[in-house]
Amino acid sequence: MGLSSLLTRYLGHSFFLPAHGRGAALPNELRTLLSKRAGVWDIPELPGFGGPLDENGEVFRSQQKSAEDFGAQRGWYGVNGATGLLQSALLSIARPGQSVLMPRDIHRSLINACVLGGIKPVLFDLPFERDRGHVLPPDGIWLQKVLDTLDSSFFEISAAVLVHPSYQGYAVDLSPLIAQLHQRGWPVLVDEAHGTHFAAAVDENLPGSALKAGADLVVHSLHKSASGLVQTAVLWMQGCRVDRIAVERSIAWLQTSSPSALFLASCEATLREFSKPSGKRKLRARINEARGLASQLRKIGLPLLENQDPLRLILHTAKAGISGFEADNWLISRGLVAELPEPGCLTFCLGLAHHKRLANLFRKRWDGLISSFSNRSSLPPFNAPPIPFLNVPLMDCGLACRAPWESIPLNDTVGRVSAEFICPYPPGIPMLVPGEELDQNRVHWLIEQQRLWPEQIPLYVKVVL
Ligand SMILES: Cc1ncc(COP(=O)(O)O)c(C=O)c1O
Questions:
Q1: Sequence spans of domains, the chain
Q2: What is the pTM of this model?
Q3: Which of 86, 127, 224, 243 is 20 to 30 A removed from 334 (C-alpha atoms)?
Q4: Which of 222, 362, 194 is nearest to 289 (CA)?
Q5: Per-residue pLDDT tens over the stretch 80-123
Q6: Nearest atom in ligand 1 to 426's CA
Q7: What's the CATH number for 393-464?
Q8: What is each CA distance from 267 to 35, 77, 96, 195, in whole angstroms?
């Protein structure tokens, strides 16, 4: 069977990304475009239409309009996901040799930007919830501890990155954090890949968006948290801490010179939806449905964890003695497909499509799951990674990636420097970054993770020679 025919296979009830739910929630404009003669929409930059960096084209005007709608000064559409735009954004605020403060749960795309740009990631640790194995976002007190620790270290920071919300939908009020970072004079980039819908400002109980909180650069993944096609994203800029020319230069470094007009049209249509009253109504309806669903499921005993994004449901499988991977495999074979299996949880992305009779479906599947894995007691608490509160790879990430290497059993890596990532996907958060030194505790912990993340942690690791 070819790839094309595989694509249209029915997979079951999809609670995975993209958030348009296999087309069900695509914006009408895009739906109309896709219903035209196949392929007419497949063009690169044409005169007049232009691209994200062409000031004379329609794309540029559209970006300006979207930026106004979202309260930003500038916006650039992206056709290589949040990945491409996060990397461009980071390269625009840090030069080779400079250090950037970032949380330990950073997406690997940003570490890859450090690799490309000779930037030093200064990684700070995060609160860890042992019952589920998740990190939580830092609050102001936590960040102050990070800043105090920095004050007694030698790191000179040039910029900071925050992640908001996390993959599982944990979020905090970003405003005080951004103010603390701005006080130091650092520009702040927020990876809001999972939080485009926060910027639609449809519900006062949803977390505020990073733009509202004053971030200088914000990246939204339009397929993860809006109804866009896969690979679509947007980068916003506001304030005077970041040089627009530097942003555009970095976008030009990393994006194709033939951006797909279909993807660019998808960016516009998706953002327009969140600015129009009809689109806001639709989003509000999905959020209310999701809240109703979670409260019904809690009432009938499903162990759902509290988070701040109603469109992400975190099923705490560890509570019933089941790993997220076991639950995922069992549910997939019964037509319920989640997004993010982890050792202690399974996260469902409800997305923007309307689903019918979900409570009943989830209840039935949960009852079935529990009886198939009966007589289990809760999983033991998970161990936080044994890393310093503030951690900088011993060797420059870019040099470590490009250094001569050998591949050795994970067991034997104590005292060696990693030449690669160890990074389960999803969620794409590195457990080990190139250039980090492996000490005894970290190696023990990684071996433990091998058991917890089946087939996601390699038996052999590339280390610098
Ligand atoms: C927090 C976070 N940032 C960025 C990305 C990259 O997004 P994209 O797939 O749009 O490139 C991901 C992808 O999983 C993510 O989870």
A1: 11-385, 393-464
A2: 0.98
A3: 224
A4: 362
A5: 999 999 999 999 999 999 999 999 999 999 999 999 999 999 99
A6: 14
A7: 3.90.100.10
A8: 18, 6, 31, 15
